[in-house]
Amino acid sequence: MLRLTVALTALLTTPALAEETFPATLAGHAVIPADTMIEPPADAPADARVSGKFATGPARVEEPGSVAGDTGELHGNRPTGLSLPFEGQPVQGFSGFAMNRAEDGTIYALTDNGFGTKINSPDALLFFHKIAPDFDEGTVDRRETIFLRDPDKAVPFRIAYEGTDARYLTGADFDPESIQVIGEDVWIGEEFGPYLINASLDGVVKGVYPTVLNGEELRSPDHPSVRVPATAGEDYRVPRSGGYEGMALQPSTGLLWAMLEKPLEGSAERALQVMAFDPEAREWTGQTLKFPLAEGATAIGDFNFIDATRALVIERDNGEGDPSLACEGEPRPDCFPNPARLKRVVLVDTADVSADGVMRRIGHIDLMAIEDPEGKARLETAADRDLTGTFTLPFFTIEDVMRADDTHIVVATDNNLPFSSGRQLDEAMANEFVLLAVPELLSAR
Known about the structure:
- This protein is mainly beta.
- The protein has a single domain, classed as Tachylectin-2, Chain A.
- The protein has two helices and 30 strands.
- The chain has helices at 2-13, 439-443; strands at residues 20-22, 25-32, 37-38, 50-51, 67-70, 79-84, 86-87, 89-90, 94-97, 107-111, 127-134, 139-147, 176-182, 185-190, 195-200, 205-213, 216-218, 244-249, 256-260, 271-278, 283-292, 299-305, 310-316, 343-353, 359-366, 370-371, 390-391, 398-403, 408-413, 431-437.
- A five-stranded mixed sheet has the order 1-25-24-23-22. A five-stranded antiparallel sheet has the order 13-14-15-16-17, with no helix packed on it.
- The longest helix has 12 residues, at 2-13.
- The two termini are 35 Å apart.
């Protein structure tokens, strides 16, 4: 009887083994080179003219390009070919797409906090863009960049540029990871609080909302009120880099559904908490869902609805690089010690929920095995296998997905500049935008 109970429990808490894998075909590929910089606003502090001065350690590095970037210990400390600090602000990693487009048809795309942590990003400005990928030409037109700022002191804690007039926000203040636009309002989900940030279309912060679950404020170790020493599960329940990686706008209700990137501290479930926020009332509704992670997945990258109840979720592991070049034994420059193995776009139905609130996984596409019969890929991939007719996204962080039309989706990457590679062993990954034909996925129910 005990054996049967254990088996039934595993069945209820693990995504169905028979989940369908749908085909995906590359319909377009556009690239922004990794080393793409923009000028900060004219009224930004002089400190923002050079970014990444603290990205390689606690000591300030003033000379641009004097410290080589590498992939870090998890990925073998391989050089990426780019060096810090940067003159200007890197366009770098895109961490979220808004479901609603701008009036001119461009996509609202969010850049993340800069260099990955609160400590190393005090000179990285925060901004979002209006972009237009041209899949015929393979380029991306950045029509406008909107910098976030807090002139009215809506942010309830001290910011890095506190004493300035414009009060531009930086990666020491927030880690923006998801974005939605509703009329004249921009809503951003971030990881440090985690908070929801409300801003105008021109980037002025109007409100900052802490996360509330079952009457309790959820905090991460990077929350401004958390102090060392702090105990996981007591002083904070959201793990570091576990805040709002995805936040979807539900067209049928107008609610924002904010999804944590990782399970809560102390949770035995392999499921991610999803909470509903009413942007009109500006409060959490108390409604919750859970997204079940597949075996081998460690986090999600983005979350967007495609109709009243069905939504797309990027699901991933922490690997980068083609698995055919996996290291055997000690890491070496010619191999990937932690290659990519699980990178997916999952279709879920938020109206089909189990008794404990877990949404149903309808099926997925494999981002490591995209069909490319017409050879539309614009970048080569280092691999010890024949990739003819196959396109792959072997990246640590793939963080953007949205429905393009009835048969296509757009997927894009966060390139963690200058710390990630993946396409090549020793080359910083570019910002890639991928148009995928997925009619079977989008029609599945």
